[in-house]
Amino acid sequence: MRILVFPHDFGIGGSQLNAVEIAATLRDQGHECVIFGNPGQLNGRISELGLEYIEAPRPRVRPTPSIVKALVQIIDERDIQILHGFEWPPSLECAIASHLRPATRHVSTVMSMSVAPFIPRTTPLIVGTEAIAHHERESGRSIVTVQEPPVDLDHNSLGAVGSTDAFFERWNLSHQAFTVAVVSRLAPELKLEGILAAIKALPLLGSNQPVQLVIVGDGPSEPEVRAAIESAGLGATPHRVVMTGSLNDPREAYAAADVVLGMGGSALRAMAFEKPLIVQGENGYWKLLTSRSLPDFRWHGWYGRGDSLHAGPERLAKILDQLIADAVLRERLGQFSLETVLEHYSLERAAQIQLEAYEAALNSSPQRANERLHGLASLYKLANYEFRRRWSNLRGRTIKDDDFNASPIVTERPQVHRVGAE
To answer: What is the CATH T-level fold of the domain 2-150+347-394, as seen in this structure?
Structure first.
């Protein structure tokens, strides 16, 4: 099969790492895969995996006509069978290009916490959680597949990293301190609240053992994070915060940690390093990964919503105190983390799901009239979205749903009632 994979962004992030790592797995199974997009940090991983890369034109207003034109040219030159867009801008551009070349089919993956409504309803859609799939089917989509975010278990492991001494020395970390790591983009949507709560939690800890919070990542909210560190009053405590900025290879941070805070793909990579995981969310949400909490995470994703924003730091401090005091518990939870990713989140499993989605798309009969109707509806929704975004910008307000992480789909997992059970 000849496949073009188009990630939405070439920074180091979960969705785009999934895109290239699954592509490499499919390549190893005998398929032809090429990566398309604008250059960035992700190119290092693409080169490391030995994947072919084609640079895309610079995007303007999405969908960008020059990008669609480039996709059509690649289809013609290479007889591409599948265009696979990740997140909404590449998904729209792949949909338009495949409409211009009907023998080529398109597939969309959305690993954001909700799906942009202007992705055409005829587009075969892959999402990351059962909750989002349920919501999309209820709203009228018929071709929805669940692919839980995979982890490259060869690349992400304690054995692959080896010693973390150089990491400790580089960032002046103490081996005697308890190390809490978070690897995250410093962005207002989803991420910022948890990072600020983690900083505020440090003075609330009951343990006398020094704790070092290592924050790996950068982004537009970095000034707010630095201001929070300054105002946290850590000078009167044995605790500290270390900001490393963005790292091309953050694996040493996972390996160095005693406990990891995270959500989404970062949470899963932490689990591959055999670490206890505290899942962060919004509105004060923090939950420790255990055998009891796992089914909920597999339903709605590695994220959650709490009931009180202000309660977040205290909740996190309570969980951290429990883990700091109990090395046996940390070891048991770390082993459970690793067992979970080995069973459910391998690249091979994700690649098989993706390949089945490709085969279904190729075997489907195109319904051009229906596709045109849904395409027009999508253009209307996109125009409405752009109008609201620009109008808000003119009024000095920013719409937060640019990546559709600002309105997550989080629904309760259906309960199974057994006959005769209380």
So the answer is: Rossmann fold (3.40.50)
